[in-house]
From TrEMBL, chain A:
Domain ABC transmembrane type-1: 89-302
One Gene Ontology CC term in the entry: plasma membrane
Similarity-based family: Belongs to the binding-protein-dependent transport system permease family.
Protein name as annotated: Sugar ABC transporter permease
Name of a matching Pfam family: BPD_transp_1
Intracellular or extracellular location(s): Cell membrane
Keyword hit for ATP-binding: no
InterPro entries: ABC_transporter_permease (IPR051393), MetI-like (IPR000515), MetI-like_sf (IPR035906)
Region (Disordered): 1-23
Keyword terms: Cell membrane, Membrane, Transmembrane, Transmembrane helix, Transport
PROSITE patterns: ABC_TM1
UniProtKB/TrEMBL annotation, chain B:
InterPro entries: Bact_solute-bd_prot1, SBP, TAT_signal
Superkingdom assignment: Bacteria
SUPFAM superfamilies per the UniProt record, alphabetical: Periplasmic binding protein-like II (SSF53850)
Protein's UniProt name: Extracellular solute-binding protein
Length: 320, 429
């Protein structure tokens, strides 16, 4: 906010006449757009253009080679009859519903611990954040694949406690949890956001609560949670949308097959298979738009629900 | 924002120029299609194939020989593994930018002929640029579709039973020519009983093996435009396969899944696997045991249903250098030196010049040569018909659904229905 006060337009206006400023302003705008032009062109050519094209393809029969043939809503109705599409929806839903809350709970829990001042705080924060930086990489997915194989560390550790599951990677009942573990392990990004939120909660509120005899849980439930609810909302929204788009880890951990027995056939993986392996580009485009609709719907529900649980009080003003 | 007031026309022009240059650059290199003719008449052609590093090393050596002999032709290369190769190829071909010349197989001929991607090499043969003389009997037929020559074979191979010799020896099992399926499954049980190693890695989801089984029964996997078997046939085949997994004589599908991208045979989790005979080269490099070739089991003690398949070189119908591409293919299939370098990496060398030039000295290559000689002598080789369009998708579906079934995640009848539905879609695509 202070930046605005210091910026020079006021003095400039005093020195030169208004029309000159206008001309210069326009020229500055032009320069700005020119500097942006590679990105604008990139957006139009590489994002907006393909999106419009895929919207059209979604209503056609298109195998990449033929001229797209208009089929109306066929691709969309076909989807609901396709057992593999249903499977991909089921797998993705399971992944989102199990993975996202776990990740956020862990992120919030660790953030609460790290919010207290103690020695080596910076180190712990960095250490917990690190997986978020490398977690999305293909090499980590490879590491994951070997960690969860037969006789590897996870299998052995579980055997010690009497659980003989074997490798998770080859087992259709377990491999999805391998992916869930991979995403939960990357809790660092939402954790940092939670930390920032926790720092904003005014100390006075806790002091007042303590005077009234509130315990730790009561303080968390009645002060911390409502005060960080905007941050919580932001994290829920971001992580949910992000979870829907899972592709890389499923693709690599399952060794590109999204198996076994379609157990890791997440939505985008099936979309990829239909589009680029089976050359059903019309169907794949329809799937893509369906995903967009689904994510939009979930987002809308979240926004609607925030009226009920998100508190946008201006904390700093109240404290003053 | 305070510093931006000195933006001058020159700066704007510079920015505009830079953006335009960047975009222009993107336009020329974006499509990656830089095969063409340069000022001094040098022609560049693009060549891609699938295979492991070993194959790439050999092919690069042969390209050096070619460029020495034809200094006016430069070859740009590119390779991936089988699955990625065809994914990339499909996208490139759809964009009108396939490589000028590429490795091909019988499964893809009709598919890409239907999509007008493949160059008919007949005119080049008639012009004398490319010769189909001096090939081992019958192999050039593999590249023929509806009177067009869409590919020229570099090597021939046939389906075989690749075995882990050490495990077979330990179990005291000796595969014999003309053995029956009953003999084979008994052998798997003996192997499992005596060595604890499952006898086979999952025969029932291999399209090419089921094709042989059907041929032994007077059918085939494909007709000219569809599937050559019915739901009852496949239900029986998969039902039997599943009960053998349950019996433990076939590798646990969970293990197969974990061994990928390695084969469970070379990982030591199975004693035999049905695949192409030239795969012993790969498994010997990959695994720690000794691998050999055994005869395909039969119904009647004689007919194996085998045929000679082949890897081929094909050209793009959109190439602007058909003559140079034909010269390249001609050199690669006939030059004796190329044969010496390649060996049996892509199957037994197809042209007689190359076949005579390479005499295998190592046991693995020797055994492949012996195997194909024996198979040919036994008089069991049938002819192969080019697979209908969509066969590549169907091959993958057969493997995947067979795997689902083995995992016990679907019932044979449901699996068969799913397979037939997906096949239908693939033929229509």
């Amino acid at each position: 906010m202070t930046l605005v006060k210091e910026s020079p337009p006021v003095t400039r206006k005093a020195r030169s006449g208004a029309p000159a400023v206008k001309r210069r302003g326009r020229r500055e705008n032009l320069a700005g757009y020119l500097f942006m032009s590679p990105w604008i062109a990139g957006f139009l050519l590489l994002t907006a253009g393909p999106m419009v094209a895929s919207l059209y393809f979604a209503f056609t029969d298109y195998n990449l080679f033929n001229t797209p043939k208009w089929v109306g809503l066929d691709n969309f109705t076909k989807m609901f009859d396709d057992p593999r599409w249903q499977k991909s929806v089921e797998v993705t839903a399971k992944y989102v519903i199990i993975g996202t809350p776990l990740k956020l709970l862990l992120a919030l829990g660790v953030a609460l611990l790290l919010a207290q001042s103690r020695r080596g705080q910076a180190f712990y924060r960095a250490a917990f954040y690190a997986p978020s930086l490398i977690g999305a990489s293909v090499s980590v997915a490879f590491v994951w694949r070997s960690l969860f194989s037969d006789h590897a560390i996870v299998d052995r550790t579980m055997s010690v406690f009497g659980f003989h599951v074997g490798g998770w990677v080859g087992n259709p009942d377990w491999i999805l949890y391998c992916l869930v573990a991979l995403t939960v392990w990357q809790f660092g990004a939402p954790m940092v956001i939670f930390l920032a939120g926790l720092k904003q909660v005014p100390k006075e509120l806790y002091e007042a609560a303590e005077l009234d005899g509130a315990g730790a849980f009561r303080k968390f439930w009645s002060i911390t949670l409502p005060m960080i609810s905007p941050v919580l909302f932001f994290n829920v929204l971001l992580e949910t949308i992000h979870s829907f788009q899972i592709f890389g880890s499923a693709y690599v951990v399952s060794n590109t097959y999204c198996g076994p027995a379609d157990a890791t056939l997440v939505y985008t993986c099936y979309l990829y298979q239909q589009g680029f392996k089976n050359a059903q580009m019309g169907f794949a485009s329809a799937m893509a738009w369906m995903l967009l609709l689904a994510v939009a719907l979930v987002t809308a529900v979240l926004f609607w629900s925030q009226k009920k649980w998100v508190h946008y009080e201006n904390a700093t003003e109240d404290a003053r | 924002m305070g510093t931006s007031r000195n933006v001058e026309r020159r700066t704007i022009l510079k920015a505009a120029g830079a953006s335009a240059a960047a975009l222009g650059l993107a336009a020329t290199t974006g499509c990656g299609g830089d095969s063409g003719t340069s000022a001094d008449g040098t022609v560049t052609i693009r060549y891609s194939w699938w295979g492991a590093d070993e194959r790439a090393k050999k092919i690069n050596q042969t390209i050096k020989l070619f460029e020495k002999k034809y200094p006016k032709i430069k070859v740009k290369t590119d390779f991936q593994d089988y699955v990625s190769f065809w994914e990339k190829f499909q996208t490139q071909a759809a964009g009108g930018n396939p490589p000028d010349v590429f490795q091909n197989a019988v499964t893809f001929l009709r598919k890409y002929d239907k999509r007008s991607v493949l160059l008919d090499l007949k005119p080049q043969i008639d012009a004398g640029t490319l010769s189909l003389d001096n090939f081992r009997a019958g192999v050039t037929k593999v590249g023929e579709v509806d009177g067009k020559q869409l590919g020229v074979p570099v090597g021939s191979n046939t389906m075989a039973l690749v075995i882990d010799k050490k495990v077979f020896q330990k179990a005291g099992v000796e595969p014999a020519t003309g053995w029956t399926w009953d003999d084979y499954f008994k052998a798997l049980k003996t192997i499992h009983d005596k060595t604890k190693v499952p006898g086979d890695t999952g025969y029932f989801s291999i399209m090419y093996l089921y094709d042989l089984y059907l041929r032994q029964n007077g059918k085939a996997f494909y007709t000219k435009d569809g599937l050559g078997f019915d739901k009852a046939d496949l239900t029986e085949w998969w039902q039997d396969g599943y009960s053998r997994v349950k019996a433990g004589i076939i590798t646990d599908p969970k293990t197969v899944e974990q061994d990928r991208p390695k084969s469970s045979l070379s990982a030591g989790h199975g004693a035999s696997e049905f695949t192409w005979d030239n795969f012993t080269v790969r498994y010997t490099a990959e695994g720690s045991s000794e691998y050999g070739l055994a005869p395909i089991p039969t119904m009647d003690g004689k007919h194996t249903g085998q045929y000679l398949a082949s890897l081929m070189l094909s050209a793009s119908a959109r190439t602007s250098h058909p003559k140079e591409v034909a010269q390249f293919i001609n050199f690669m299939v006939h030059d004796p030196e190329v044969g010496k370098i390649m060996g049996y990496d892509r199957g037994i060398l197809a042209s007689t010049q190359q076949y005579d030039a390479f005499k295998p000295t190592d046991p693995v290559n020797k055994e492949i040569a012996q195997y194909e000689a024996d198979t040919a002598r036994a008089g069991v080789l049938g002819t192969i018909t080019p697979h209908p369009s969509g066969a590549d998708t169907i091959e993958a579906a057969f493997l995947r659904i067979g795997g689902d079934l083995a995992q016990g995640k679907t019932k044979p009848s449901a699996a068969v229905k799913q397979f037939f539905d997906e096949s239908q879609a693939a033929f229509q695509a």
